[in-house]
Fold each of these.
Amino acid sequence: MLDIRLVREKTDEVKRLLAQRRAGDEKKIDELLELDAERRRLLGEVEQLKALRNRVSKEIGLLMKEKRLEEAEDKKSQTRETGKKISEIDAQVAGIEDRRNDLLLNIPNTPHSSVPDGADESDNVTVREWGEKPVFEFEPKIHIDLCESLGLVDFARGAKLAGSGFPLYTGAGARLERALIQFMLDIHTSEHGYHEVQPPFMVNRDCMTGVGQFPKFVDQAYVVQEGEDTETFGKLCMIPTAEAPVANIHRDEILSENELPKYYCAYSPCFRAEAGAAGVGTRGLIRTHQFDKVELIKLVPPENSYDELESMVANAETILQRLGLHYRILHLCTGDMGFASAKTYDIEVWAPGQGQYLEVSSCSNCEDYQARRMNIRYKTGSGEKVLPHILNGSGTALARLFVALIESYQRSDGSVGVPQVLQSYMKTDLIGVS
RNA sequence: GGAGAGGUGGCUGAGCGGUUUAAAGCGACGGUUUGCUAAACCGUUGUAGGGCUAAUACCCCUACCGGGGGUUCGAAUCCCCCCCUCUCCGCCA
């Protein structure tokens, strides 16, 4: 969330930046500041009363000790009134804080000054491209056909098991999925310095709130309960990304400066309800309710977080380069960025069968927006407590990568070549009709 | 799921209704002493919110002893609910 002090002191600047997102959030600022002012006014009032009560209570204690019971009783009955007032005002403050926090949690991050101003995805800026679209001497098939003919994914049976959007990977398809996961984890851990973790695949609400998924995007999550026990409903959610657990690893902690930067990478399945999303219900692997992903998370000092963002994107690019897949990097405009992000690059990989670029990675610097929600700080040498900047990036998402890969490496006879870097994982250089 | 034990500052650990503004020890930091190190001695040592300010300096106030409620003039301390850890039993991959 935003720093309430910054909102107080640089109100116009914050409004201007929020307006760039084209989401109307700047209108919430005035209401936020009204609540903030009222809260402080009431706090001043109630804290004075509490100071009074503390003083008098101490006096009562002394009177009791000296057996001056009548005087003590007098003071007790007086203070009873003070106590009533205190609980009244406390309740008001709590109500105001609830509303203030609710507003604060629903206001997105402000964009970094380098972010191109724009309304939607059509205003995103292509930063660079790598490789070239492969040329085929035949009409390349779409992944759905390849999956069917090669027995890589059984969409129909997946749908039988859990519904559409839950692919059942089979045979070489399952193996390819596993190979990609392992390949990516190996590179990030052994070459890029990330510390591998395997997080819980369900998290509590605090984690979801910490990364900015909740309260605003609660509809996108699968929320679970234990059996028929409705009491437990809503305590846990299936993770929409490993970012949810991994970014929260140090929630409510004060790290020491020399522990930074922290680099984490994690494989996890990702579960998304995709309520209301365009393209839900389309066949294939482009948009599913469950997909695999290798996620990268960094906690870094604010000074160099933007360098860290560039290197994180480069880490994700390495994967695509080793796989020999053509891709492009987009700098998302202000209107297309995620809720918590101050600056985001998307990586889109070319899928020749689809004839389109597919987003396989989104790398964001959330600056201190999440750290403030999660209450993560670190102590500098001079003893100052600072919110680290938190970055997250896909390195990369599967499913779409799987699509791009088999569509790019397909051959005229209907088989799919295995890129060299995956051959040791796949134990073969060719996926043929089984 | 059942039975029991427990959760107090960076750590150990006392306190179980009012000189606790959370004892004491350890650690850490600063200083004195010292040829150097060690030791000894002295001092400092949490977090958040609010007020005052140019100040994220000082000072003042409030809250915080796993979390949330309650009783009371007053709660680390008493009561209720929840969470977590440990030991044993049950069930289970």
Note: DSSP finds 13 helices and 18 strands in chain A.
Amino acid sequence: MLENARGRKSSREKILDAAAELVSEIGAGRLTLDAVAERAGLSKGGLLYNFPSKEALLQAMIRRMIDQVTESREALRPQLKPGPNLEARLATTTLLNMCCDGKMQEIATGLMVATAENPRLLDPVREVISETLQRIKSDSDDDAALLGWLAVEGLSNLEMHNLSPFSDQDRERIVQAINRLLTKGIAS
Amino acid sequence: MLENARGRKSSREKILDAAAELVSEIGAGRLTLDAVAERAGLSKGGLLYNFPSKEALLQAMIRRMIDQVTESREALRPQLKPGPNLEARLATTTLLNMCCDGKMQEIATGLMVATAENPRLLDPVREVISETLQRIKSDSDDDAALLGWLAVEGLSNLEMHNLSPFSDQDRERIVQAINRLLTKGIAS
DNA sequence: GCAACTAAACCGTCCGGTCGGTATATAAAT
DNA sequence: ATTTATATACCGACCGGACGGTTTAGTTGC
């Protein structure tokens, strides 16, 4: 559904791409409709034709970002071997993979805009997180799964805001440690 | 230094308090000088007398928030018994305690404003985080310390944005699990 | 007499949103 | 076949309000 019949990206997609790019370049508080329109290659009128208000645009950004995470997770599912903490491993691996693509940037920017403009825009995110917690709880035996998930949340949050102090080696070690935690648990 | 000679809060403090309150009420993107002045109980002129620009106000918010975290940590230091992962235990406990006070809100709001208005405002935060990592590394034997710290980062980030899906019992269990992780490590 | 304001008008810019108009395509009416 | 109508997708000038910041003239308390 990302492309219309002619194989060209729809205006909606171009606009969402442009908005995500812009936020990561100039910051969430400086996102303007004019800038988005220019970047997307259409007029402000055209932009507002596709999204009747700035709020509608932001909602769409959040929605797309959520859908992408869900898609990635489900695409990953068949590649992981079943076992304990499967849902936690899925959730963490998905997030960690997205940090490496540019996609994480988009998640970050969406969240930043939402936080800046209108905290209510985060409602759908709240829902997804709550659902993820349920999934993780549903097939985890101890608290290691929760800790691993939280650690990934922490790491990705740092990376979102360009606050991560970790070198590549650091990060690699951390990822492995999280995997160990999810498969072996906390020492007793 | 929070109060002036007469025991009354200085205008600067009142202004910073007002700004933090406002952000958590109306969102980072809607913070205006007029609103801050009104909430702080002085005129716009008075506000701009204390902070010559909005940017200066935001910088001061970030600075105060960093100082509060550092102070809290050092106040906690004599109360923890020495041992492995002391720095990690300090860092995590400090953050977790602040989540319970209202103080966490202030940290959150500061970060939100900074992210929204001007990513450069996060520079001092980046520095503090980097320094914290060094501290944690300096006295930890394995990766458990890093994981515990990251988990707390994740938890507090969720709580900052009111995204935490955890009940009080959940949270309690998680805190205990983090402590176990920091004292006993990952199973081998 | 200086620091720390108050009060209120004002300026310039930015920005979300409106609105009249346009181009193209497809369909309906004659 | 030609006109007329309708829908879609878009353009871009413009409006009005918000907001950061300035200025000015005065006030209060040490």
Note: Residues 32-34, 44-45, 48, 52-54 of chain A lie near DNA strand C (CB under 10 Å from a C1').
